[in-house]
TrEMBL record:
<feature type="signal peptide">
    <location>
        <begin position="1"/>
        <end position="39"/>
    </location>
</feature>
<keyword id="KW-0732">Signal</keyword>
<dbReference type="InterPro" id="IPR008972">
    <property type="entry name" value="Cupredoxin"/>
</dbReference>
<protein>
    <recommendedName>
        <fullName>Plastocyanin-like domain-containing protein</fullName>
    </recommendedName>
</protein>
<dbReference type="InterPro" id="IPR045087">
    <property type="entry name" value="Cu-oxidase_fam"/>
</dbReference>
Amino acid sequence: MEAKCRRHDSRSHPGLGHQSSLHIAILIGLLNVALDVRAEPVLNESVCLHMSVSPALTPYIQELPRLPSIDISTGVQVTLGVYKVSRSVHPELPNTTFYCYGTSGETASCPGPNLEAKKDVTSYVRFENHLTDESHLFVVDPTLRQAKPPRGGIPLITHLHGAETEPKYDGHAEAWYTAAGDTGPAFVTRDREFLNQQPETLLWYHDHTLGYTRLNIVAGLLGLYFIRSAHEPPNLPSGEFEIPLVIQDKQFLPDGSINFPTKSFNLSVSSAPNWCPSYMGDVILVNGKAWPFLNVVRGLYRFRILNAASARTFRLMFSDSRVKIVQIGTDGGYVWTPVELADIYCPPAYRLDLLVDFSAIPVGSTIFLNNSYMESLATNNPTTARLVMKLNVVEGLPAQNVSIPTSLGPAPNLTEVISQAAYRQLTLSTQSEPYLREMLNLRVWSDPATEMPQLYSHEIWDIVNLNGLGSHIIHLHLVNFLLLEWQPVDVLKASRGLCSLSKPFGEPDSCFTEAPTPAESIGWKDTIAVTPLHSLKVLVPFFPRSGGSYNFDATAFPGSFEFALENPKNAFVLYL
Ligand SMILES: *[C@@H]1O[C@H](CO)[C@@H](O)[C@H](O)[C@H]1NC(C)=O
Ligand SMILES: *[C@@H]1O[C@H](CO)[C@@H](O)[C@H](O)[C@H]1NC(C)=O
Ligand SMILES: *[C@@H]1O[C@H](CO)[C@@H](O)[C@H](O)[C@H]1NC(C)=O
Ligand SMILES: *[C@@H]1O[C@H](CO)[C@@H](O)[C@H](O)[C@H]1NC(C)=O
Ligand SMILES: *[C@@H]1O[C@H](CO)[C@@H](O)[C@H](O)[C@H]1NC(C)=O
Ligand SMILES: *[C@@H]1O[C@H](CO)[C@@H](O)[C@H](O)[C@H]1NC(C)=O
């Protein structure tokens, strides 16, 4: 979804190496502001990484809202539409125009409603596109590969991030559709069937359209998706004591509109004049409101956190060290052993399931939830981005019969699997000529597939971030993976070909500057931030989380779609 943090949305299909990536990272069409000077004043130029600061807003004056919730476990199809709506993010700022999900234009919200699914109960969701705008809210870069609806309009396709789901319901980046009825080449259906057969967890849904994902998520197209069951750990806080927190950053103009860059930060790159690979804003929103406050009682809470920012990583800390934080879950569900945290590291698209204990804090206290993460791009570190939320400890009855579990299940023993896994090294880098592009293994999205993992095999992926600046977010569709180890790389030498990435640390000419550090992996992930100047090794089982086999054809269309385009003879052979 963006790009210093180029969210590389690597699908687990043959295109792995290429087609995977960029959709999230890429952008969009052209806003013809200059052509229509009568209707609207020409927008002020907004330059990537140099946007004008947002109007000053008083923090902590509005209460954290609860997001609306929809039960999708009834067997009845639920329809969620995308609407253009006006919503307030702060009382001191005029309303903002968003694209939001909802059951109607009146009830649409940004973030969209929480979808509540039950494990092993199929959910039926139709996603409709009600956007009739001719041009997008934001400037679309015409030079990037993107959806091109013949009749114009805003193309949309929703992806359920982290879901074990059939290819045709996965939200392929080329499966977009418009309100006028145009469809992308990988389009199958607007009606989704989600099997919910994976472990209980928090997923999120978001737009995933080729070339528009980044814009559409900043415009508001995302929401939470819970999978629950009757067999979850007992004694966890629930109801009013379970609090979903969707955290995002945005920048605003004085008229309340979202300030999204109209110009690339590097004006000498003519191939992507409007592409800002790192959108980071100076206003922090939680559940759609700027810097809200939350009243809590002296007791245990469950916080379900999603970082839905385009590029900003958060490292969250409570200002009072007596607040105890214990992580009980991650992207793929419960961890095996709960872990006490000093702070909350949360790159884009990560989900964290936390127990937060305010028992030791006296009533009347005020606690701040602050962000201490320093982005490597200095201009993206306004002091306002260090503020997130305020908590007031108030009088009240805490959650009853709740406790912090000490174990949530056995850690998997993967010794044998790891010793037999196939190995693959993948590099992440940026090409500037002839086009500015994000690359996976020196390939771009439109290149033919090179990586073809086999269904029902295990692989170790060694992902090397050759960018010196930002982290690069990698997300695999369909499968979960486990972080095994990480290792620093001499990126300067590596990118000039002066060392070898295939030689281990210690050998002459190795690009690795230290021995690998084993990761303290606590649970299954679908998203990982590959930090700059590092390689990360992950174990990827091409299996469902149940360990058996998929109850659908994981190799079917349109997973292999782009592969089909480039290599018609091999079409549809492999999805994984
Ligand atoms: C555009 O710039 C002018 C002059 O700097 C400023 O007064 C105006 O508020 C800006 N408009 C927007 C929408 O930011
Ligand atoms: C502003 O947004 C709020 C919701 O956040 C909405 O209720 C209200 O109708 C909006 N005002 C306008 C003028 O659209
Ligand atoms: C507390 O939780 C335990 C375990 O789930 C349950 O057996 C017990 O009935 C609960 N007690 C109360 C008072 O709710
Ligand atoms: C956290 O935020 C509060 C309120 O904005 C501020 O007063 C405090 O200095 C911040 N603490 C840190 C460590 O940044
Ligand atoms: C894990 O499995 C291997 C054999 O596959 C065995 O040798 C080892 O003792 C096991 N480790 C643990 C901690 O059970
Ligand atoms: C801008 O792009 C040009 C052409 O690729 C490159 O030579 C130059 O170093 C870039 N400048 C910055 C600041 O990235």
